[in-house]
Specification:
The complex is a heterodimer. Chain A has no helices and 11 strands. By secondary structure, chain A is an all-beta fold. By secondary structure, chain B is mostly beta strands. Chain B has strands spanning 4-7, 10-13, 18-25, 31-37, 44-50, 53-57, 64-70, 73-79, 87-94, 105-106, 110-114. The radius of gyration of chain B is 14 Å and the shape is globular. Classes of the chains: A mainly beta, B mainly beta.
Chain lengths: 108, 115
């Protein structure tokens, strides 16, 4: 079945540094979605990408969808303590298949 | 606050107990999902209901039994669970139709501990 891999699993950064997480699917995706889960919270939808090579920005967050629609990335510029959490990517039909997520830990 | 309400928030049960998890969505969505979240594992899709019909069952053990009486309510009936079933159980809802998956709206989850 479809598999979604994310790297890294954990990322420690100093506040103000940039952060990137990468997502790779074993199959071509019609679309990919990104979610953020704060510690003790539930996943919250961030964005959806549907076009090959698409790039979308939300303030300090930049999302990319690969040309082959099998990979994606999330880049955060100048991290802040409010960015702490786990970032998940997911794709597929009839319910998303998620990666394990990247845990972002920020040191002040 | 999330539009998707799950009860109870925490549940401790023995392996011989029978319990049910409840989920209610107030977003007018017509698809609902159960996910299992364990430590160091991806979010695992368990069940999908679209327009009250079950469309996906990812080889979940029969000790988990879903029920979707209408598009706003979803239950997960539990019986004779194992300690490895301890996890956070998340309910989600979305719209159906269209060319792409609609975003999922998650509830706060039920933290289940099986003793």
């Amino acid at each position: 079945g479809q598999q979604v891999m994310q790297i890294p699993q954990y990322q420690h950064v100093q506040e103000g540094e940039d952060f990137t997480t990468y997502c790779n699917s074993s199959t071509t995706l019609s679309n990919i979605q990104w979610y953020k889960q704060r510690p003790g919270g539930h996943p919250v939808f961030l964005i959806q990408l549907v076009k090959s090579g698409e790039v979308k920005k939300q303030k300090r967050l930049t999302f990319q969808f690969g040309e082959a629609k099998k990979n994606s990335s999330l880049h955060i510029t100048a991290t802040q303590t409010t960015d702490v959490g786990t970032y998940f990517c997911g794709g597929g039909a009839d319910g998303l298949t998620f990666g394990k997520g990247t845990h972002l830990i920020i040191q002040p | 606050e999330t539009g998707v309400t799950q009860t109870p928030r925490h549940l401790v049960m023995g392996m011989t107990n029978k319990k049910s998890l409840k989920c209610e969505q107030h977003l007018g969505h017509n698809a609902m999902y159960w996910y299992k979240q364990s430590a160091k594992k991806p979010l695992e899709l368990m069940f999908v209901y679209s327009l009250e019909e079950r469309v996906e069952n990812n080889s979940v053990p029969s000790r988990f039994s879903p029920e979707c009486p209408n598009s706003s309510h979803l239950f997960l009936h539990l019986h004779t669970l194992q300690p490895e079933d301890s996890a956070l159980y998340l309910c989600a809802s979305s719209r159906t139709g269209g060319s792409y998956n609609s975003p999922l709206h998650f509830g706060n989850g039920t933290r289940l501990t099986v003793t």
